[in-house]
Structures are given as C-alpha cells and as structure tokens.
Specification:
Radius of gyration of chain A: 23 Å
Helix content of chain A: under 10%
Number of strands of chain A: 16
Number of strands of chain B: 11
Strand order of the largest sheet of chain A: 1-6-2-3-4-5
Largest interface: A-B, 17 and 27 residues
Distance between the termini of chain A: 49 Å
Radius of gyration of chain B: 20 Å
Shape of chain A: elongated
Helix content of chain B: 40-55%
Number of helices of chain A: 1
Shape of chain B: globular
Number of helices of chain B: 10
Structural class of chain A: mainly beta
Oligomer: heterodimer
Strand order of the largest sheet of chain B: 1-5-6-11-10-9-8-7
C-alpha cells in the first residue's frame, strides 16, 4: 500500500502500523520556529480498539492501510463462524465470532451488512442503524398497569434482551436501534 | 428557523468584522510604535532566488524562485548599507506548516537595529507589548509586567521530565519542548527563553564568554511562541560556514537545498554593524491580544 510523507497526515486517515490498521482520531501539527515539525496523532487500532499517541517528524514516512468495504449477505452460522455471501460474486466469506461480536444479535437471515476488510481479512461489520426482529419470549403485561412508559423485559430470536412496552406480545415484530440496542416501535407483520 | 439562521449568520459576520477591525488596529499600533522611535518601514523582495538556509524551514517554489520564508537577509543587507533602524510587516511563506498555530502563509513583523544587541531588542519588545495592549485596550495588566527570563536549560529543568541535554541526546528535543515545556511558558506574564545552544541558531552571534551558547531568545505568551531574536552574526566567514553546514545537513536528509546568498555574504564581507534583530508573528500577536485559540480566527480568510 502507498507510503506517504507525514505532511499528508490528517484526521480520519487510515494507517498501517506494526502490521495492524489504525485510524487517526486526532491530529496536531507543532513546530518550534527553528526546529523540526512534529506531527502528533491520536491513533485507534481498528481491530483491538486500543488508543494511543504517536508522534512523527517532518521527513518521516507512514504507510496507508489497505482498507475496503464489501456488502455481504448473512447466510448461516456454522460451528464458531458466521457465513456470509457476496451478493455479486456469490463467494462465501467466513467471519469469526471475534469479528462479529455482539453484532451477532442483530443479524438477520439474508440481511445485508457492510463488512470492513483490512487487506484480505474482515475486521469489522457495520450494521444498518435499524433492524426488525421477532420477539421470542416476553411475559404478558400486568393487567391494569396503564401508566405510560411502563416496560418489561423481552428477548429476540437471537437472545438479545431489551425493554419493550407492555403491549408487545411474543411473536410481534419490533424495530430495534442497533447503535444502542433500544426498542423503537412495533412493526406489523407483513405475512 | 430562517430567523435563527440569519441571526447566526449576522452574529458570525459581526464577530468576523470585529476581528478584522482589531487586526487593523494592531497593524496601525505596530507602525505607530516604530515611527515614534524613528524606524523606517521597508519592503524587501518576496520572491527570492536564495531563501535563507535554515535547517528545518522549507521555502515554497514560485516559478523558478522561492517565496521568502523571512525578509531577514535583505533587511540585514540594508543595515550593511547604512540603515540603522528598520522594520517590515509582510507575508512570509513556509512549506507544509499548517495547524492551529501555523499557516503556510502568515504575516511577519521583523525589525533590526544597528549598534545594539538582543538585550536592547528584548527591552523594545517589552515596550511594544505594553504599547499594543494599551492601544487595543486588551490585557494591559498582563503585558505591563516585566518579562520572565529563563534559560532554555532551566525551562527544561523546571517543566520537562528530562534535561535539555538528554532531550538532544535522545533526539526528542522538539517533542519535549512542544509538549512538556511550551505549555507552561508565558502563563502569568510573557516569558523570555534565552541561552540556546549555538547549534540552534544559524544566524546568531555566539555568546562571548560562553561560545557554546547563542545570543538568541524566544518569547512566549500563553504557551505560544511569538518571536525569535538574535544578536546578529556579522562575520562573513562564520556565516558562510554555517550556511554550508546547514546545506550539508539538508543534503544528508535528502531535502531540497538552496544556494548560498552570495549578495548577502558579500554585504557582510564589506561590513555589517553590530545589530540586534527579531521576527515576530503578527497573526499570533493578534491571537494572544484577542484570546483566539486558532489562528484562523484572526485571518480574513482563515479556512482557505
């Protein structure tokens, strides 16, 4: 991948450091009047999430990280891997549990997700902001409890726990915000 | 909604106009200060064949020449021709310098005075600070105080985890200065840092009783480096040698080098009076007088 001079550093640029992809989350240019310029970056490792500071001097070079995204369709779970398919090439792509993490709760059969690749390895998945999931388990609401904003625990088909209004029943479809895991609204079944 | 938006636009354009007005007041104050002291204002070339050789300052190419990184060499030639008190306010250009406190194009004030050294310049700088703060009615209490004076070595000892010597040996002088020392300078009153190693002052005279040090100082306000001053080097041979060393360093780092300014060296050979000189960032002075944190706030088109 391309090697660039540190003069080209800026916020959000992606760099390969010690073999791993990083994003520059903050960037400061400083230079004593007569001294060498110092480019100080706050960096975030895109795989581990670790953050740290690193400085470079004028004249130094850095390597850009080879990152790309692909739209993949979720197929099924096999052993400890999540199997996706590329809708264009029909290639199968296996993602490990480590990469999918808690996002597994929001996967929908045949649902599309954006997968971030570093070189040839998938490193992260980006869900749509909202997904629709069925409620598999939830106790019925207590009769007579008519106060507004009363919620009860419920579980989706993937075992995600969330709080829903008491009028939600098992088998209902609900819209969930994947960024905070919160219930948004009830959705009428299309069937 | 439309109301709120236009109010916002109005407010931001008012603050913009206000900052333009403040800058205009500052430029007038600076000129008045020097006129009152019998300085003459000069304008020297902006496109140069041979920009001043500095270890870590790069010039921007301009159609076969370079944009000046400072008017220093031409102004010193005027001293050689007999001018005694000169000042200049104008744009200078330094490649790849861009950040909250830097622009590739910025405004510099430089002044030079014959038959004196950097101590006289320090006194005048203090007077200039007082004058501007009164004229702009800004931070008068802060700027009326005597400058705090610290040697570079003491500043490191006071604020950094390692000594000046260690930082040079470890090759992290710049990082230590920028991140550990500078933020503490000029907090209560302007701070003058002096006694720089001779190797860090290509155009400055060495101290007579301590030749490993240069007669150079820098002044800081609010952690911001505002100005750099020298007792000017007047010896042509020594100057030529330092330029050559600087060229060698740049070559060894595979960076662009510039030819030696033979007109300047010839002028030194013909004779340059003892002199003190200083370069002060006008944008930064405007920043500390107005409390701006980002240089773009004091520029007419700071985001372009």
């Amino acid at each position: 991948m391309a090697v660039i001079g540190v003069e080209q550093l800026k916020k959000n640029i992606k760099l390969k450091i010690d073999g791993q992809p990083h994003t520059v989350t903050d960037f400061t240019f400083t230079k004593p009047g007569k001294g060498q310029a110092v480019y100080r970056c706050k960096l975030k490792n895109l795989i581990t999430g670790n953050t740290f500071d690193r400085s470079w001097r004028s004249g130094d070079n850095v390597e850009k990280a080879d990152l790309s995204t692909r739209q993949l369709i979720f197929s099924y779970i096999e052993d400890n891997a999540f199997v996706f398919m590329d809708g264009e090439t029909y290639d199968q792509v296996m993602l490990s549990k480590d990469v999918v993490g808690d996002n597994a709760h929001y996967l929908i059969d045949d649902g599309e997700v954006e997968v971030l690749f570093f070189e040839d390895n998938a490193i992260d998945i980006q869900l749509p902001n909202f997904v629709i999931k069925p409620i598999h388990k939830s106790d019925p609401g207590v009769k007579g409890d008519t106060a507004t904003n009363v919620t009860k625990p419920a579980y989706t088909d993937t075992g995600l726990e969330l709080h829903v209004p008491i009028f939600i029943n098992e088998g209902d479809l609900v819209k969930i915000d994947t960024r905070n895991g919160e219930y948004v609204e009830r959705v009428n079944a299309k069937k | 909604m439309a109301n709120t938006l236009s109010e916002l636009t109005l407010r931001s354009s008012l603050s913009r106009l206000n900052s333009l007005k403040q800058r205009s007041d500052l430029l007038q104050a600076l000129r008045r200060f020097f006129w009152q002291r019998d300085f003459i204002e000069v304008e020297t070339p902006i496109r140069l064949i041979t920009p001043a050789l500095e270890d870590y300052i790069d010039a921007i190419p301009a159609n076969g020449k370079f944009l000046r990184t400072s008017p220093e060499l031409h102004m010193k030639r005027l001293l050689c021709e007999g001018a005694e008190k000169i000042f200049q306010i104008g744009a200078c250009f330094r490649e790849h310098e861009h950040g909250e406190r830097h622009r590739e194009e910025f405004t510099m004030l430089e002044w030079y005075e014959a038959h004196c050294d950097y101590r006289k310049i320090a006194g005048d700088l203090h007077e200039l600070f007082k004058f501007c703060s009164v004229e702009l009615n800004s931070r008068q209490e802060y700027f009326s105080q005597e400058l705090e004076v610290l040697s570079l070595e003491d500043a490191f000892a006071k604020y950094a985890k390692i000594s000046l010597e260690e930082s040079i040996e470890n090759n992290n002088f710049e990082e230590t200065l920028c991140f550990e020392v500078e933020p503490h300078l000029g907090k209560e009153r302007p701070t003058l840092i002096n006694d720089y190693p001779a190797s860090m002052a290509a155009l400055s005279r060495k101290k007579q009783n301590a030749p490993h040090l240069a007669e150079r100082f820098e002044v800081y306000v609010d952690g911001l480096e505002l100005a750099n001053a020298y007792s000017e080097l007047t010896n042509a041979n020594e100057q030529r040698q330092r330029f050559q060393e600087c060229r060698d360093l740049r070559k060894s780092q595979k960076r662009i080098t510039y030819d030696l300014d033979e007109n300047f060296l010839q002028a030194l050979e013909n004779g340059m009076p003892e002199a003190g000189g200083i370069a002060l960032g006008v944008d930064r002075l405007a920043m500390v007088l107005s409390g701006a944190k980002d240089i773009s706030s004091v520029l007419a088109f700071g985001d372009e």
